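Page 37, top half.
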Amino acid sequence: MVHPALGVKSIQELIDLARAKPKSISYGSPASASTGHLATELLKMRAGIDVVHIRTRQCPMLQDLVAGQVQLAIDTLASAMPHIRSGSSSPWR
C-alpha cells in the first residue's frame, strides 16, 4: 500500500519515483525481519531503490501510513482492505 499523496498508481511508478528521489520515501514495518520488512528489503534489492525503514508496531504502522508518516507499507490483505476501501491508502496495481 502507498499513501495517496505519493501519487503513484503502480509498482513501476513507485520504483521510478524511488529511483529519482533516493531516501525520500519511507516504509513502515512492525519489526525487523517481519514479513513486510523482508518483502520491502527484497523489493529494494531487486528494483535497485533506496527507501527508508521506519519500525512501528502493526496497528501504528497502518495508522502511520494513513496519516502520511510513512508512504509505503507491505501488509496482509485482511489488514489493508479497510484502508484501501476507505481511500486512505492505495493498493498497487
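Page 37, bottom half:
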Amino acid sequence: MKLKHKLLAGAFVVGATLTTWAQQDPTHDRLGADKPVRDISYIKIKNFQDEDIGTVADLGIDLINGRIVEVLVASDKSLGADDRIVAVPPLALFPDPVNEVYRLNMSPDEFKEAPAIDLAKWTDAGSRDRVAAAYHFFGQEPYFLQEGETASKVAKRPKVALGYVERSSKIMDMPVGNPQNVKFGNVYSMSLDIPRGRILNVVVLAPGNFHTKSVIPAMALSFNAARDGLVLDDTKVAYANEPRYVMTEPEFGNDAYSNEESYEGPHTSVALVQGRSYRDVDRTVRINRDIRASKIYSRHVQIGTIDGRVTLRGWVNSDADKGSIGAIAIADSRLELVDNQITVGKPITAN
C-alpha cells in the first residue's frame, strides 16, 4: 500500500498512518518543513528476539472516541502466510525508536495463531465482538464496553461504547463539513500516537489556493450517514475559531514552513462564560448531568464551556470531590481542554 500524503514535520503531527517516535505535544517551535511522509510499509514489526513478525499496513480508528483501535499488521513472508492481516491492539506494541521498529512480545509461531481479518469485509472486521476477541488474544483489556457491561460512574477513565471503526487510509482525503452541508475541506493528515492508542487531531485542508489547514479535535468529528465524509457538529462561524496551521510557501531558497495555533486556551481568569454553540452547550449539560449522577455535593460549582474549553470554578468540601468532578469533565471532554479552578473548603469572606 502506498499512502502518498504529506507530513507536517514536528514531534507529533503526522500524515496518514505514520507516527513519530517522540511523544511531546506539538508547539509552534517544533513545526518545520512540509515533507513527504514515508511509505507506511516501511514500519516493521519485530519481536524482542529481533525476528520478523510483519509490517504495518493500516490502522483501525475509532474517530468518535479518539482511539486507534488496532494496528493492522501484514504478516512477514518468512511466516509463510502471504497477504495475511492480523489486527493487533496498539498497546501490545513497544516502540523501539533506535531501530525504528515496533516490538511485539510474541514468537512468530504464536503470531501465526492470531486470528486474521478480511479487509474486503471491513464492516464485519470492525464489529465489537471481533475486536474484543483480538484484544483478549494479545492479553489486552478493551477500552470499550463489551456485551453485558455498563459504564462505571466512578472510574477515572470509564469504558465507552465502541464507535464505528474505519481504516485510516479511508479517512484520508475524506470531505469535512457541518450539518448544514457547508464543506470546510478535506482530511489532510492526522496527529497519531500509536503506542498510546490515541488519535488527537485531524488536520483539514481548506479548498482554494491559500493552503489553509485547520486543526480539529478528533472527538469533535463524526461520520455522516453514508460514512463517506466527516461532520463537525458546529457552524462555520465556530469552525473559524479552531486553531490553524498557517503555511508559508517555499521561496528564495528556503523551505516551506508552518506555524500551529494552540487549541488550548490560556488559563481562564475572566468571568465564567458559556458558549452558545451546540457543542459548547451540550458539553456543559453532559458534565452537569454526570456530576449530579455521581451524587457529589456540587452546589457551589460553576461550569462554563466556550470554544470547546471547559472551566470549573467554585468550591467543594474535599480534594477527592475536586478530583472526581475534574475526572468527570475530562471524561466528557479531553484532559487538555479542562481548566479545573475549583478550590477546597468554603472561601473565607471579609466581614
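Margin note: The longest helix spans residues 278-293.
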